Amino acid sequence: MGSILITGGAGYIGSHTVQVLLEKKVEVIVLDSLVTGHRAAVPAEVPFYQGDISDAGLVRNIVESHKVEAVIHFAARSLVGESMTMPDLYFYENTAKTNLFVSNLLRLGVNKIVFSSTAAVYGLPETVPIAEESPTGPINPYGLSKLMIEASFPWLEKAHGLKWVALRYFNAAGAALDGSIGEEHLPETHLIPLVLKTALGQREAIQVFGTDYNTLDRTCIRDYIHVLDLAEAHILALKALDHQINSGVFNVGTGQGYSVLQVINAAKRITGLNIPVVEAARRSGDPDVLIAKVDKIEKAFGWKASYSDLETIISSAWKWHKNNPDGYNR
Fold it and tell me: Can you tell me the mean pLDDT for 230-245?
């Protein structure tokens, strides 16, 4: 594998993918605006460029200086709530800038890209588990901004020979097993870090949004995928493109789910700490169950989740949060 450009490589999933690629002795270059990423999440030895994917001159410099052969594209805005209040920002930052970025890559002779997409493209699913062929119908601008990028790829493939894989993540979770890097968003909206911040006393309680779902414990169920399994999926997708696999979309999940209460109870057990819970009204648009069908990625790439049991997810996340209570501002 030649040199790989990682956009958003200082973000949560990007930084873990950089770490796994380094372990595999792959040359990586990181481009990140640091609007939401953390410079401390990227090892000092990795060539790092602070800048925007829409900066054509910068992208040209990186591609030519490092002889970039392929790109893993993580850089994006990803807060659903923010996208509802600022849809224009999301269509500009995610969709328009990615279109410009990919066009520039193709002009520079880089035609292989693995794209960070999302299960939010499915909206409210008609059936569960959700297959890649399921109808798409995003219910927020974030999901639509990603789906619009996906929709552009087959046309770019037809016109310019783009080779692409779009990975539709379910719920990314966990941290590096050695505790060196982890998950930090500002603001934090993900369940597991919020639960662990509550365990640390940084929050008074964890809110459970809805206890009237059609599930065994009446809280909603989600498919959690360990960030290291996600990283491996990206690497296998790149290798598959090198071996002329057909471009396309692939779910990345486990095919099973855990409820909100299961997550909280596991965190209580693993941390040994009290985690106060407050019931709140359910949020509009939250389905009872979201679980991925993962046959396609398992068959195409030989990928299988290795770290996505609830014990490993929460234990690894707890190691990071306990050792870095102030996040990357340590």
Answer: 94
For the chain, what is the largest distance between any 2 Cα atoms, rounded to a whole number of angstroms?
57
Beta carbons within 8 Å of 160's beta carbon, 6+ residues apart: 106, 111
Range 274-278 contact pairs with CB under 8 angstroms and sequence separation of 24 or more: 274/199, 275/195, 275/198, 275/199, 275/205, 275/206, 276/198, 276/204, 276/205, 276/206, 277/205, 277/206, 277/207, 277/208, 278/205, 278/206, 278/207, 278/208
Q: Which domain holds residue 201?
A: 191-222+255-323
Contact between 168 and 117 (Cβ < 8 Å)? yes
Q: Is the pLDDT of residue 257 over 70?
A: yes
- Residue 286's pLDDT is 85
Residue 1 has pLDDT above 70, yes or no: no
**Phi, psi (rounded to 5 degrees) for 45:** -80, -10
Amino acid 186: pLDDT: 87
| Burial classification of residue 3, based on how many CB atoms lie within 10 Å of its CB (0-12 exposed, 13-18 middle, 19 or more buried) | middle
Question: What does the CA dihedral 60, 234, 115, 328 come to, rounded to 10 degrees?
Answer: -80
Tokens (6 digits) for 324? 């870095």
Q: Exactly one of 12, 90, 142, 258 is catalytic; which is it?
A: 142
pLDDT of residue 177: 97
Same domain membership, residue 196 and residue 80: no
Could you confirm whether 142 is annotated as catalytic? yes
Domain match, 31 and 138 both: yes
Cα 277 to Cα 279: distance, rounded to the nearest angstrom? 7
